[in-house]
Fold this protein.
Amino acid sequence: MSTSVIENPSLHASPAAEFLDDVLKGLSSTSRSIPSKYFYDDTGSTIFDAICELDEYYPTRVEIEIMSRYGDEITHRLGPDVRLVEYGSGSSTKTRILLDHLIDPCLYVPVDISIQHLARTADALAKDYPLLSVAPVAADFTRPFVVPMSEFEPRRTCDYFPGSTIGNFAQAEAIQLLAEIADRCERGDGLLIGFDLRKDVCVLESAYNDRAGVTAAFNKNLLHRMNSELGANFDPRQFGHHAFFNDAAGRIEMHLVSQREQSVSIAEHSFEFDRSETICTEYSHKYSISEFEQMAARVGWQCKKTWCDERDYFAVMYLER
Ligand code: AVI
């Protein structure tokens, strides 16, 4: 039996129109940019899975290492009878570690923008955890959505936001998102969140400039996507991949760099590119533990405990309202 997905009205009625609006807006501004959420079509998601397997790309491996090592301790903090709500659940790999340790969770609510991905994940989880109630919600978690109730009153709701996705938001947006999650919570509810830590620049820059060129392909997939979905005429050979650590802003920035002067058209609009002009496609912020703790405290979260790996590359923080 398949688990039915609750479709939230916050999902855009016409994803293609929204994509086009965002691209035209981003390319019309003086520093050109395209929101990084558009990386994740089917091809982009597959390339991202390949990134996670790369030697240079440590975050996924290290976060799983932390979750596996401290799974008992983490779930002890969350306590029994939890309603677990996961933001951007993807294939829920890290969640399985939590589910293996949690005592009598009331309900698991994976929230993801991709209905197909969500349905597959929910079905697989329902099969592997027959005693668990799963209520998948298809929603853009940066917009308001309704969290389903469990049959039994949970002891607390715990929001789970793994994968250092919080780092892909500009800092003001990240604080805003933490505030929105806090607003949905009641006193005593929790937030378990994974984020990437500041570290040696060489380690950071290698993670986004892998030798096999997988990250470059991930970045350039955006050009292919605009060509096939928006009728644009980008020549992907005429754009390069550039990723560097912006120390002052504390973030990796990914850009597509025009290799020559060129003109690109998208739906009756034409955009001129100078040689070396860039389109910013992603921020990936790297925080210190205290920086993140202060950011969350500003919007009502109290840090209860942080777990790190041996090299302090990555952090998993548990906060309460
Ligand atoms: C999904 N997100 C946390 C990844 C990151 O590291 O910021 C996306 C990514 N971009 C390039 N490599 C991985």
Remarks:
- The mean pLDDT is 93.
- Residues 51, 59, 163-165, 167-168, 208, 215, 218, 282, 284 surround N,N-dimethyl-L-histidine (CB under 6 Å).
- The radius of gyration is 20 Å.
- The longest strand covers residues 239-246.
